[in-house]
Structure formats: structure tokens, C-alpha cells
Write a structure and sequence with these properties.
Elements (H helix, E strand, L loop, with lengths): L1 E5 L28 H9 L8 E6 L3 H10 L6 E5 L5 H15 L7 E6 L3 E3 L1 H15 L4 E6 L9 E9 L2 E9 L3 H10 L2 E11 H11 L1 H7 L3 H6 L9 H6 L5 E5 L3 E3 L4 H7 L8 E3 L2 E4 L5 E3 L5 E4 L4 E5 L4 E5 L6 H11 L1
Helix pairs in contact: 6-7
This protein binds guanosine-5'-diphosphate-alpha-D-mannose and magnesium ion.
Length: 341
């Protein structure tokens, strides 16, 4: 088995702490290790560093190298994309790398994971991974799914069908539905969130690209150096839209470990320790008669009076103040700033 760690995303939802120059995977959240380091460490009981491939953008080389070295995984491979083209091309490139440089056969399982989630405890997680790998060996595209507890619109939804080994056949996969649809899925009870972790054999994923994304298949079928030099021509698409929504051989392995993609300030609030009034405080903050707030300060004192359900994040040049429950929309601030130039 080879592990492909996707660590090239730009990160907009945790603005202003995550910027294009320091996206979420490099932030230390709820732990003294960054999320990338936490990801690598979770898998070290299962495989050796030489079986790990971190796919990232060339801008992040320094961060990735330093982090791998400090967590004892200096022997892992770093695969650099010349431009970001989302996760489907990143996975295709990593698959070609494994085949060309690491001698991966069509039957070897590739386990793909995002680099920016919190997952624990490790022993339960490892059991979940082993189950997914077993299913992948049966020539399936395996996703690891989580029982949802709210109508989150930032995730993919997996409709579970009949049992299949230790998992389920997938009836349908829908990436990032709108709020109404997410609410229907939650009420239905048969839908799971996609964790963004996948397992398949190298042969299986190349067949899936060939069937559903011939442009990616063609570009990724060339020798590795050519795949890199032509990478810009890859379509910009995630593996969820490119394969998971289209393939008829998707199965789901349940992820029973605690999982949080901390994709928003609300999710950060959830994972941080709180005081007796439910305030999650970090940095120089003075909450007076405040309850259920998040205050993250870096340089200046944050003094809050009578606040309830408010998120305040202060950095050198930006202060974001948001209502709890609305923080998915922080990415709209980033989009607005980009549009302004
Ligand atoms: N190498 C590389 N190149 N990595 C990338 C790129 C890229 O162009 N784009 C994103 N990534 C990495 C991110 O750093 C992250 O670790 C992972 O791929 C997933 O990308 P996100 O951009 O965070 O995806 P998402 O959160 O919107 O959605 C995915 O994850 C959800 C769970 O957190 C989907 O798989 C959803 O279906 C899923 O529910
Ligand atoms: Mg994500």
C-alpha cells in the first residue's frame, strides 16, 4: 500500500489565519503539531515513510520538507505540481509517480487522504483504514464515510445501499449539495458524509479516469516527466466530481473514529477547550459577560462585552467578526477581496 497525502489546497474558509501563503494543512489547530504533521503521524504505525507521497504545490515545498523531517518522515516523497488543478489531477499524477518511480503494480492499493483534518484515536482509525484497504483490493473505489449530525453543505454525501463486506455499496454520491438537499439527506438517515479519504488500486483508478475523465487519463498515461510538464492542461476538478459522482463501483467503509474537517471557524470553536461560559479563548482576550464566543487574538487585546455566539479572529492586518453558525461564508470575504484585486 502507498499513501497519497493531498496537501496542495489553498484554504479560504479559515481566513484570515489561513491565506494562500499558509493554508489550513500547515496550521497548528487543537494540537502542537500542524494538521499535515498530525496526518503523517496517524499513518506511521501502518507504513514506512518511503511509502508516503505528499502531493503539493511548489509554493509549499519548504513547509512540507520541514514538517516531514521533524516528525521522523524525512524519507517520504514530495511530489510537486507546477500549478494547482484540484484533487483529481493531483491523484492521477501521484498514481503515475507510484507506477514510474516506486514500482507500484496495477493491484497495489493507494490510500488517499486530505492533509487538513483532525482524526482520533489512531487505533480505531487504523482499523477503519485496514477495512477500506480490504474493500479496495476487490477492485472497488472506496470512500470512508461518516454518520452526519447536521446538514453541512461543504461535504460530499454518500447514499449507502446494501452491505458489501465490512462496508456498503454506494447507491449515489453527491458532492456539496445545497442546504435543502442536505437537510433531506440528513432526515433520510441512509446518507453519510464523505471524509475525502479514498482507497483504490492503481489499476482501478486509472480505469475510472479512462471511463469518466479521458483528458486526465490521457495526460496521466505519459511518462512522469511529461505528466508534470503538461500538468497545466489538466482540467481543474476534484476527485469527488470527476470519479466518485460518476463511478458505479464505489463502496463505502464506515469511518468510526472521531473526524472533523475543521473547515470553518465554527468547527474550530467546536474543537477548542471552553471556559465555564462556553467561550473558547486564545491569546490576550478579555470576555466580560460573554458566552459561547470564539476569540483568537494574536497581537492586540480583544475585549468583548455582552457578546453571545460571536466569533472574533484578529491577525496583523485583518479582524474578522462573524456570527456563530455563519462562518462558512467567510470564504465569500476572500472571494470578494480577490475580485477587488
Ligand atoms: N496536491 C493538491 N493539489 N492538493 C489539493 C489540491 C490541489 O490542487 N486542492 C485541494 N487539495 C487538498 C487540500 O489541501 C485538502 O487536503 C484536500 O486536498 C481536499 O481538498 P479541499 O479543498 O479541502 O476539499 P473540500 O474540503 O472542499 O471537499 C473534500 O473534502 C470533504 C471533507 O472534508 C471533498 O472530498 C468532500 O466530498 C468531502 O466531504
Ligand atoms: Mg477540506
Amino acid at each position: 500500500m502507498k499513501l497519497i497525502i493531498l496537501a496542495g489546497g489553498g484554504g479560504t474558509r479559515l481566513f484570515p489565519l489561513s491565506r494562500t501563503c499558509l493554508p489550513k494543512q500547515f496550521l497548528k489547530l487543537g494540537n502542537s503539531d500542524s494538521l499535515l504533521t498530525q496526518t503523517v503521524k496517524r499513518f506511521l504505525p501502518l507504513l514506512k515513510p518511503a511509502d508516503i507521497i505528499v502531493v503539493t504545490n511548489k509554493e509549499y515545498t519548504h513547509h512540507v520538507k520541514t514538517e516531514l523531517a521533524t516528525c521522523g518522515a524525512g524519507g517520504a516523497h514530495i511530489l510537486l505540481e507546477p500549478v494547482a488543478r484540484n484533487t483529481a489531477p493531483a491523484i492521477a499524477l501521484a498514481t503515475r509517480f507510484c507506477q514510474d518511480k516506486l514500482g507500484t503494480s496495477g493491484e497495489e492499493v493507494l490510500f488517499v487522504t486530505p492533509a487538513d483534518h483532525i482524526v482520533h484515536p489512531v487505533d480505531i482509525f487504523i482499523k477503519n483504514v485496514r477495512q477500506a484497504v480490504e474493500l479496495a483490493e476487490q477492485n472497488k473505489v472506496v470512500t470512508l464515510g461518516i454518520k452526519p449530525d447536521k446538514p453541512e453543505t461543504g461535504y460530499g454525501y454518500i447514499q449507502a445501499g446494501k452491505s458489501f463486506g465490512s462496508g456498503y455499496k454506494v447507491e449515489s454520491f453527491r458532492e456539496k449539495p445545497d442546504k435543502d438537499t442536505a437537510e433531506q439527506y440528513l432526515a433520510d438517515g441512509n446518507y453519510y458524509w464523505n471524509s475525502g479519504m479514498f482507497a483504490f488500486t492503481a489499476g482501478c483508478i486509472m480505469e475510472e479516469f479512462s471511463a469518466h475523465m479521458p483528458e486526465i487519463y490521457q495526460l496521466a498515461s505519459a511518462p512522469l516527466t511529461e505528466v508534470v510538464s503538461n500538468f497545466e492542461a489538466m482540467p481543474n476538478i476534484s476527485i469527488d466530481y470527476a470519479v466518485a459522482e460518476k463511478s458505479d463501483r464505489v463502496v463505502m467503509a464506515p469511518l468510526t473514529a472521531y473526524w472533523n474537517d475543521i473547515g470553518s471557524w465554527d468547527a474550530i470553536y467546536d474543537v477548542l477547550d471552553k471556559d465555564h461560559s462556553g467561550n473558547a479563548i486564545n491569546g490576550d482576550c478579555l470576555p466580560i459577560d460573554c458566552s459561547n464566543t470564539l476569540m483568537l487574538g494574536r497581537n492586540r487585546l480583544i475585549a468583548g462585552v455582552g457578546l453571545e455566539d460571536v466569533l472574533v479572529v484578529e491577525t496583523d492586518d485583518v479582524i474578522v467578526v462573524a456570527k456563530r453558525g455563519e462562518s462558512q461564508k467567510v470564504k465569500d470575504v476572500v472571494n470578494e477581496l480577490k475580485a477587488r484585486g
